[in-house]
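Appendix B: complex inputs.
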Amino acid sequence: MRPLLVKELWEILSGRALWTMLLLMCPLIGYSFSQAASLYGEASVTGLQSPVLASSLSPLDGVLVPTLGAFYVAVTLLFPFVAIRVLGQEKESGALRLLVQLPYRSSSLIAAKLAAVLAAWVLSSIPAISALVIWAMQGGHLSAPETLNLLFGHLLYGLLVGAIALFSASVSESAATAAIVTLAFTIGSWVLDFTVAGQPGLLAWIARLSLTQVLRTFEQGLLSAGLVVGIGAAMFGFAALANVWLPPGVQLRDKVIRSIVWVLVVALALGLATQIRLTFDATEDRRNSFPPADQHLLASLAQPLVVTVNLAPEDPRYADLQRNVLAKLERAMPDVSIRLASGRQSQAAAAGEDRYGEVEYTYDARSDVSRSTSPREILPMLYGLAGVSPPAPAPGSDYPGYPLVAGRQVALLWFFAGLPLCIALAWWWSRRLPKPLPARS
Amino acid sequence: MDGVVHLVAPDRPIPSNSARPMAAPSASEQARDQVLLRVESITKQYANQAALSDVTFDIQAGEILGIIGPNGAGKTTLLEAVAGILPIDRGDVRWHGKPLPPSRRREAIFYLPDGVRPYLDQPVTRVLSFFAGVYRRSTDEISGAIESVGLTPVLRKRVYALSKGYGRRLMLTLGLLTPQLLLLMDEPFDGFDLRQTREIVSLLRAEVAKGRTFVLAIHQLADAERVCDRFILLVDGRVRGIGTLSDLRSRTGISSGSLEDVFLALT
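Resulting structure:
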């Protein structure tokens, strides 16, 4: 495999697409980072005077997510062109007809190309990583678990886009067509986000197919095993489809049949992935969890908890309840069922009912109703239903917050001069001619 | 190498390396009973148009077989079908009498397509290193292939900067680095002048002497007559004649005609 991997890496490095993308990323990520750091600095001025205000200053929300958000835009719009190149150019030049005759299985060829896509993603992440380095050098706080979790999410998103690009290149005759197919997935996800997100019923299910959903959980600081398995299955599925469509000597009918089989297998894997409930809260402020004492006590409540929500799915109160209480309960308690009483009814239709806004909690044959979306009111109520005493709050576990007022000059100088220069030099280095082949002995 | 085993031909005499294969006892005549590959009833249709119709022929070990025919005759389609990189509607390929499914063709056959410039942005050296690395070729073997094809002057050039002739030489060098016994080449002399064509003909003869077999798709009949031991005349996807020039002359009754005369008489 070594000659193949070396060839794939040189193909990535020799193309203009990667270097052009890197150069475009410099101002994009640089501007996002300096804006985020500037706004964070403004908020930090008051935060530095008040510990209470400081506790709301998290670099994850204030700096990391916006900076890597620019990286996400670049990966969505530009990375497909880099990833498509690993296969598209060989198809266009006819070199694929040589490649498929080499003594490698087509799965090995696809694996090598995915490795090249991974290498391309690692190189494209340099501007984003450098922003984090600058932040840390300026005295900014980076929590290792939440930073690595967020980077891992972006890695999975990048590889998923790469796998889609590879599949698109395998079914398309030209790189231009492959780009259109890939952008249909990536930009199509934005369309889904803008048009059907927050809608009830089937539209809500369709909205969940958006690729941007991949990142949301990581941006919230959660590492979800189900999501990771699901993304892995989707990546594997696109790679498997690329593997089906790569060999030119197979009848179209056979390719279609094999594709259908793989689609069914991946659909099954995705279905199974949705059943995996294991999640880790990677945030330093534990925003996705109740306080540790509550978490511990809730984990010991073995009976099923049934929550009946009389709210329409698009109601902002439902979103608050979901974020503040229900998602945390699902993570903390062993058996939680959540039911929307309004079903697929819209907010307008459901709002006229008397019980609209009520949330009923049933535990161990006892029920209580609340309209609150705050855990401060709901947790004591749950403990009452379970017949247990609320735990004593643990001292010293409060998130301190990390206010920082940092200058913009260093970042702007780096992203608008230093980094582009480094990229240009690396590009020049990659264009150097190799050493001549050794002469015959 | 992913565990792919290269098919090995049984022991066979290495054919003589004659400068004029048509005059001297040819490789095909020596090895006539040693069928390396048999192509049986290959049929391929595009939409409602037949690209290949019941094409059947044998490839003898150690010969240079020319597939000749006008543009659009189906020469490239036939080579790609035999190489297993084009799905066919019907037909079979046998290697030493045993079925050789498309997925295993690359173990015995390597096909050099026409008009391919592999890895345009890479220097020639890197492309050669890739193939040499894949097939674990020694330094001597790489240098030998480069020298024999005359690729030395352009080793440090990028592939996109090569002239048509050097692009063709690069493809030929890649073919020489492969270990397959049977090499299929589509229009191997396209882009070469007469002197260069003769050089390449000598090179192919030297490879035949080492035990290789070639199938060349050629539309220039003069080139084909210069290099090939036997010919397949292909017109509109159908075989109109197979044999040595003498065989074809006998069929047409043209006692001393050129391949061009024979071709015109048979098609």
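DSSP finds nine helices and ten strands in chain B.
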